[in-house]
Amino acid sequence: MKSKQITMMITLLVVTLAAYLIFSPADNPGSSENTGVGDEPLAGLEIGRIAAITLTTSEGEEIASLRIEKEAGRWTVAQRGGYPADTARIEGVVKNLISMKILRRVPAGKSQLGRLHLDEPGAGKTAAAQIELFAADGKSIKVIHLGKELSAPGGEGSTSALGGGSYPDRRFVMLDAEPASAAVVDQTFSNANADAADWINRTDFFEVNNVLSMAVDYAGTEATNSWELVRENTTTNWTLVAALEGEVLDQSKLSSFAQPLQSPTFNDVLTDAAANLSTNATRITLGTEDEFTYTLTLGEPNAEGEFPMQLAVAAKLAEKRDPEEGEKPEDKAGRDLQWQSQQQQLKTRLALHQTFSGKHWTYLVPGYTVSDLLKKREELFAPKAAAPPLGPTLPFPPSSPLNPLQNPK
What we know:
The chain has 2 domains: 27-198, no CATH class; 211-319 and 343-380, no CATH class. The protein has 4 helices and 17 strands. It has helices at 3-22, 87-99, 329-354, 367-370; strands at residues 52-59, 62-71, 74-77, 83-84, 102-105, 129-134, 140-150, 170-175, 183-185, 211-217, 227-230, 239-240, 268-270, 282-288, 292-298, 307-315, 362-365. The strands form 2 sheets. It has a 9-stranded antiparallel sheet with strand order 4-3-2-1-6-7-8-9-5, with no helix packed on it. An 8-stranded antiparallel sheet has the order 12-11-10-14-15-16-17-13. It starts with a helix and ends in a 39-residue tail after the last helix.
C-alpha cells in the first residue's frame, strides 16, 4: 500500500473520530437516535422489593419531600404520622413506571439537563420532580427524574375534549441521574407530587347509621346552646331531653338528623401542634340502634371553614343472646348461630371504626360534614306565635258640660 493512501486513511480516521467526539449523542440532546424506542426501561422492576418511596419536588428553591413506607405490611404516609396511605394511588404510580415506553431517546450532557427540566430538585424552574424507590434494607433501588411535560408533535391525539388546545401526554425522564438515559416516555406522572394530603387514604372512613340519640355540648359561654335529642326508633319523631317551658321542637328543622354522618369525609390529617384541640372544644355524641356511641370533638374552624376533629368510638355488645318469648327448642340453635354472626359483624365494625379514633389522629373535616349538627338550641324550635295585634284605640268622646240648672247628685 502506497504511503499516500496510508496517509489519507489515517486522516479520514482522525476526522471521523473528531466528528464522533464533537457530535456524540451524550453531548447532543437533539440527537435523532432511535435506539431503544418502544422499550420499557423499568419493566424488570420487582414490585415486591419496594418498601419505601420518596417524592421530591420544588417550587423555586423551596423543596417539598414526601416519604411513603410500609409498616406492618401496609403503606403509610410518614409526614402524616404514619396514617394509612392511598394504596390505589401508589400502585398507579408504580404501574406507570413499569409500563412506561420510550418514545424518543434524548441523551444529554449535564450542562443541557436544564433545558429538559431534569436538574436536581431545588434548582429553580429547571428542576425535575424526583421519585426514589427503596428496599427494606434502606438501599436505593432506582432513582427517576421527571422533567418537562410535552404534547404530541402537532398536538395529534391530544386535543382537549373541553377545547383550549392540546394537553401533555408525554414527559422527559432520566434514570439514576445518568444523562445518557434521558428520554421522552409515554407517561406524564401528573399525580406524582409531594403533597402529603393527596396520598392519605380518604376512601376508608367511619360512618354512622340508625341514630337514636344525639347531643351537642358547647363549652364556656356557649354552654347554654347545648342540647340533647332522643327517639324510640328511626321512624319516630325526636324528643328534647330536659326541655324548658315553652320549648317546642320543630320537626321539619330536624330532617337533616335522620342519617347524620352517613358518609363523612375529611381533607387532611393534622400533626404536631395543629393536632391539639382546646379543652373548650365542642362535642357531638351520637348513639345508634345497635348501641354504638360516637363522640366527635371539634376545634375551632380555620379560614376555609374546616374543623379539626378527633373521634372516639365505643359499643355495648351483649355477651349472650336472650331467648325470645315462647321460643321453641328446635329454633334455638339456628337463632343462636344467626345472633353470633351478627355479633361478629358488630365486633368487626367496632374494630374498624376504632382504627380512626383516639387522640393520635386529628382530622381536618370540611364544614359541611358537621355543620348540620352544629345547631344552637334555639334553632331547634318552632317560631313562637306572635301575639295578636291590639284593635284600634278609640278616642274618648268629649265630656258634655254640666247644666248649671242641674244639681249634681
